[in-house]
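Worked example 2:
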Amino acid sequence: MSEAAPRYQFGDIARILEALVAADGSAAHAYANRARTALTRDSLLSLPDLADAANYLCLLHGRHPGVIDHAATRSADNAAREWLIEAADAFASERAYLTQVTVAAGPAPSTAGQADCETIVNQQRHALDMLAQSDRRGCAMGAAMALVLDWRAIRHVLDMAAIRTGIEPHACTLPDRASTLDVARAIGGDDHVDRAIQFGARQLLNQHRGLWDLLAARADVRAKSE
């Protein structure tokens, strides 16, 4: 967990959620960030790296129901209903795009410890399912909102993989940052709910960072075996 991530302060859950994603989300991870900040062609993620990312992202988020779908069945907040419907519909499109890119990029490159890596990501998927089905009010919504906010950075990696395999990236229609943070403010404000939102968001971001750590380690193993 990044030390830059803020500690809990009552009454500002939207600001905290945004800061959490900025500090601990995919855009802050060095490996994932190579998809958009590489200074030279040699420092870009290679096609095998992109295929690896697409395959493991598909393993984590490619099945239905996912985090947002589960959250929609758990949330009783009227203020979140429209956002959840929009987010679930949009993520269904993202899931289809993820699958399309994964197929085009080809199978994950052979890497030592492959079976163990797949087991780890399946465990991450199970952890996200449990998180998004939590009965603790605000927890599932925190995970869903963090996913929507963090997906923009993940999309950079998928779009790079799409372009490299001849696919034209389509527009992402997930709820934007402002509307997502508005929902956080609308359902938050209660100490217990705010803590639950923050917990759900942190746990979702932890799983994403764990995935990028795994992908970076796999890339390193492949580089050393060449």
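Confidence is low (pLDDT under 50) at residues 1-9. Residues 13-225 form a domain with the Heme Oxygenase; Chain A fold (CATH 1.20.910).
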